Structure formats: structure tokens, C-alpha cells
Amino acid sequence: LVQFWNSLPLAIRCLVLGTGVLGVIVTGGVITAYGGILLLFIITLLCLGLTWYLVVYAGKKAIGPQSGWKNKNFRIAYLISIGVAFALLAGLIFYRRTLYMDDYINYWSKQDLLRSSFGTNGFYGMSVLLDNLLRADYKVFSNLFVSIFYQFTDHSIQAFMICMFLGCLLPAWYAVLLVAEKIGQVLETRHPLYLPAAGLMLGLWPLLMNPITHAMPDAQGLTFLGIIFLLCWDYRFEKLEPGRLLGIFAATFCLIITRRWYMYLVVGFYAWYSLLVLAGAVRNRRFGRTLGNMAIFGGISLVGILGPLCLTFLNILSTDYGDVYGAYY
After folding, report:
1. How far apart are CA 93 and CA 131, in angstroms?
2. Nearest to 141 by CA among 262, 307, 320, 32
3. What is the pLDDT of residues 54-75, one digit of tens each?
4. How far apart (Å, rounded) are the C-alpha atoms in residues 210 and 217?
5. Where are the alpha helices (DSSP H) in the chain?
6. Of 142, 182, 256, 291, which one's alpha carbon is 20 to 30 angstroms from that of 117?
7. Is 312 in a helix, a strand, or coil?
8. What is each CA distance from 36 to 72, 122, 160, 178, 257, in whole angstroms?
9. Are 203 and 128 in contact (CB under 8 A)?
């Protein structure tokens, strides 16, 4: 096929490529204009696929090729944790009806906003999505992960919470258990019950179940925190690794737009991480190279985060949250 392509005259190849590009543009325009829900599905699949890829990639970089699902104890631990958590969640939602309606309604209404705006047409849906992600305090980022599940439900609050579990929390549990696996590797813990016990503890952890049962996207941030921890664990900036650094940047960006307060954690974590890396560089007499690599990555990352999110930061700085939440309570 390649030889046949190369044998064609240049003009024919250009014509074929131009026709292909035009076809892609026309198809994209038709989908965007008349298939808004399909476009939303594509965005959801991209978010889910890229997130799972980053989680698995981070596990392989930190632990090795046999990490995660390839580890039998890990599979057992993961199934235990999500099974226990789903049983608790379903019981609280459908049996006890333990719902914190205010936050539920907040993100539930945003889910319906996405569905209705993309249902109108794709161009309008994209304008609503981008305006929210670039400006709003409470973003619809987490909602993107559940749209494909939510579309096939009765659109109730209870169904929305189950969809959040499927779209947002399954990768979060996986990432946190990968961190537990890494800790076990560092401590040389080989007991077969270590990871299953960690999975059971994770499934029963009250501080994790609280945001899950209160429709808060905080728990989804554990996905990106886990990716950041795994990719930074053994990395000392002695050389620039494009794949690892792109993963760190993407996870950090996603963590910030998951929930506003994670910005404080990002600043604190990277401040301490930088100090520890530089202290190790001084000890190993590689301070100049390490500092230079950190400066390159840090500068590019600041531009990449502050540029798209400058309107969000300006909104945060100009809002008096004391008045807002004082009036709310």
C-alpha cells in the first residue's frame, strides 16, 4: 500500500490528501452541527480513554510493566474496593436515601446543562463547555466523564451519582491502589493480603465515601493525584523525559479544573517536591542541570496553565467568598 501511494504522481497525492482533509472537516462540521450528543459522547470517550491511559502509564513508569491489572493481588484488591464501595453507595442512595441535595443539584443541573446544550447543536454545546471550563468556579469537567452513561438513564439524581461512580471513581480507585502497590514495593512488602487489605480499607474509607455520597467531584481528583505521585516518585529532573513530563502537566491541569481547592494542594506539593529534588541534586553535585531542567518544565507549565485558565484565576481573585458562603449559610 505504501509503495502504491509513493508511485502516484505528486498532484494526485495532493488531491487525495486535500479531499481527505475536506471530508474530515465536512464530517466534523455535520457532527458538530447536527450530532451534538454524538460529539459529547466522543468527548466523554476521549476523557475516559486518556485518563485510563495516563493511570496505566504512570503505574508502569513507577512500578514496572507487571504493575496494576497484571498483578493478581492487585486485581483482587481492585475488585474488592470497587465492590464494597458500590454496595455502600447503592445502599446509601437507594435504601437510606442519604443525599446532600444542595451539591447533588449543583452538579446534576450542570449535567443536564451539558445534555441540553449539546442536544441543541454541537457548536452551542462547545461554546457552553468552553465558557464554563475557562471562566466558571464550578466546572463541568467531572460531568464530561459521565455523559455517555447518563444519557441512557432516567436522568434522576440517583442515576447521576451511579454514573459518577462509573466514569469518575473507577480510575480514582485504580490510581490510589497503584500508589499503595508502589508503597508496598518500596517497603518490600510481599504479603499476599497487603493489597486486598488496602483495597478493602479504601472501599470503606469514610473520608472518601463522604464526597462520593455528597456528589462532590473531590474524589475524582484522586485519579490525577495518584498519577502525579507515581510520575514524580522516582523522578529527579536529571534529564527531561517528554512522556513523563507531559503526564505530570496533564494530570496537574486536570486536577486544578476538577475542584478549585486543589490549586492549594498543587502549590504546596510542588513547593516541597522542588525543595527535596534540589536538596538531592546538591548532595549528588547535579544542582545546575537539575535546576535548569526544572526551570524549563516549570516555565512551560506555568504558561500552559495560566494562559487557558487566566479568566478562572481572575474570577477567583475578584470574588469575595466570605460574602458568598456567608449568605449561603
Report:
1. 32
2. 262
3. 999 999 999 998 888 888 889 9
4. 11
5. 2-7, 10-34, 36-62, 72-90, 101-120, 122-135, 141-144, 147-150, 157-164, 170-186, 194-204, 206-213, 221-233, 242-258, 262-283, 287-318, 321-328
6. 256
7. helix
8. 41, 4, 20, 36, 23
9. no
